[in-house]
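Encode chain A's predicted structure.
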Amino acid sequence: MKNQFLYLLLLASIVSCNAKKGSRALTADQTVFAEVNIVDVRSGAISPAHVIVKENIIEQILSLEEDIDFAKAKVIDGKGNYLLPGLAEMHAHIPDKAWDDPLVQETLFLYLSNGITTIRGMLGNEVHLPLREKAANQEILSPRIFTSSPSLNGNTVTTPEEAQEKVKNYAEAGYDFLKLHPGIRKHVFDSLVAAANKYGIPFAGHVSNLVGIRHALKNGYQTIDHVDGFIEGLVPKEAGVNPTENGFFGFNFTELANPNTIPELVELSKKNKVWVVPTQSLFERWFSPIPAEILVDQEEMQYMSPKTRENWVKSKKNLTAGDNFNETKWKQFNQIRYQLIKALHEDGQGLLLGSDAPQVFNVPGFSIHHEIKGMLAAGLRPLEILQIGTLNPAQYFDGNFGAIEEGMEADLILLKANPLEDLNHLKNPLGVMARGQWISEETIKEKLKQIDEKNK
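Encoded structure for chain A:
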């Protein structure tokens, strides 16, 4: 009788254990971030948990109290570390070479090495279409790619008919959106917009000075990049300026700009649902008083070729060597940009994190940290900056990414410390996961070392 009682007690215990919620053995096709601190980019809350990934999806998020047998799963130790959604670089560039060209592969890896798991290519080429598909199918190690068309500008679209034809061709080719550059005349722009609406392809980029910011906003750009055209839009009509004499993104009109006009432009951006990609790092590195010799000596420059570095030094000196550029005026110009950025964030459609890379002294991946620094200087809080690099791009693309939630694609950054306390903690990640593909800290260091050696 006693043995029978012990048998029943043991059986009840086994049943009870098996009935525990989440009690199961993980399998070899699963990866678990064990005991990691999840950063909730919606609220800023930090939650310790196990995060289980299967294939490219976050399958489950389980509390530390759950009874789990990691069994054959790949275990990534997250204890004491922080897990953040992957970032988006919303003004990226990709070399116009075939997908298997080493420079293309290196550029994509530089983005990934800094936790960038989504890029929006802003100067499309026909070779980027198969590259985008290979990235989507995970045939190559790459961030998620969205690509623009080739440039539409004052030289490539000189007539309404030419604009309509190019828009049709680019839409049919399958580009995600049209890239606009300066020089487009207003009547050509209007034809371009009509064709874009007809063929269902959005447009984004620069605002031609003959179009103007108000007309651009009212016609529904998907994004305006570089805060282009806004400073020109702050100049009162009675100033009677020639719009073609605006200088570098309106720099020549700095003293004429009236910041009291900012709310009007911000309201137009909100009403017409136009996002803004600031690329503030350009204006604090390339177009800034910092000497080229200091920038070219920074550690991240080792990942660029000697020829690229040489060209960047020349470009910066040519841009800032003229009599019209001086530090006092630049500070005023930059302060107006800060005001615009903060207002567009708080009261406009919103901001999308983007630095413009590779560009003069903007190394792919690494430049996002300079952009983040610029957003802090403009008055955004750390959580808000993380949101414009995660949640906002996901909303913009209507994508299944941008947060750590069950069912979302597994774009993740593992960090040593809490980025909400210091955004510098985003640098040197312990590893990056791009749609389920894990890139360890060791792999990142080894690949960066190879790129460095190649460029010596």
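Residues 207 and 229 are 6 Å apart (CA to CA).
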